[in-house]
Design brief:
Layout (H helix, E strand, L loop, with lengths): L6 E5 L6 H10 L4 E3 L3 E2 L14 E2 L2 H9 L3 E7 L2 E6 H9 L3 E5 L2 H10 L4 E6 L3 H11 L4 H15 L7 E4 L3 H16 L6 H11 L1
Helix pairs in contact: 1-7, 5-6
This protein binds guanosine-5'-monophosphate.
Guanosine-5'-monophosphate binds next to strand 5, strand 6 and helix 4.
């Protein structure tokens, strides 16, 4: 019997380095796969359909919801985002762990549906640092920076409902922390039925 795959949810306000941390994380684990979400937002430069997201029209997105193909969804900054059941099932069926990079409301809905999902929140060292990082990107107007910082404050309120909090002060440390959480979660007894059964089988 196979060990059970893990639903690993990672959330973070914009500017906390979530994508960079996850990029490093994926390089250093071969059991974790990214569950590609669906979105109605426009594709950004450098993004590929089916890799970063499944880019859908609002109509197609709504059809998927109606057909029960979406595990959770939310409206964020005027666009729909949702976790596709197929993306998660495909990974779990391959014996992989499914990593969901989703915002806070989606994470709370995943928790309601899957009590054993592991929820990790990545925090900035402080709101001041976050604001400075957003400003440092040089791509946003002052108004957008303040809007994003306010949004981060709202999202931070959800952090207390997560299982693990990782502070991205130092990138390497944050990656190590995420790997440590992931590895420990995979060793939890309920996910180790397979190993127990095979050892017990050897005895008899
Ligand atoms: P972005 O447009 O920057 O790619 O994503 C905006 C926000 O939507 C991010 O916080 C991202 O994690 C979140 N997000 C991406 N996919 C999903 C999803 O399937 N469900 C939910 N609830 N949020 C998502």
């Amino acid at each position: 019997m196979e060990n059970k795959g893990l639903l690993f949810v990672v959330s973070a306000p914009a500017g906390c380095g979530k994508d960079t941390i996850l990029g490093e994380f994926f390089k250093r684990t071969d059991t974790a796969g990214y569950a590609v979400s669906a979105t109605t937002r426009a594709m950004r430069e450098g993004e590929t359909d089916g890799v970063h997201y499944h880019f859908l029209s609002v109509d197609d997105f709504k059809k998927k919801i109606a057909n029960g193909e979406v595990l959770e969804y939310t409206e964020y900054c005027g666009n729909f985002y949702g976790t596709l059941k197929k993306s998660v099932d495909d990974l779990l069926e391959q014996g992989k762990d499914a990593v969901l990079k989703i915002e806070v409301e989606g994470a709370m809905n995943i928790r309601k549906k899957f009590a054993d999902a592991c929820l990790v929140f990545i925090l900035p060292p402080s709101l001041e640092v976050l604001e400075n990082r957003l400003r440092g990107r040089g791509t946003e107007t002052e108004e957008k920076i303040l809007e994003r910082t306010a949004q981060a404050k709202t999202e931070l309120k959800f952090a207390e409902n997560y299982d693990y909090l990782i502070v991205n002060d130092d990138l390497n440390e944050a990656v190590e922390d995420l790997l440590a959480v992931f590895r420990a979660e995979k060793l939890r007894k309920p996910r180790r039925e397979g190993i127990l059964k095979s050892i017990e089988g050897e005895e008899s």
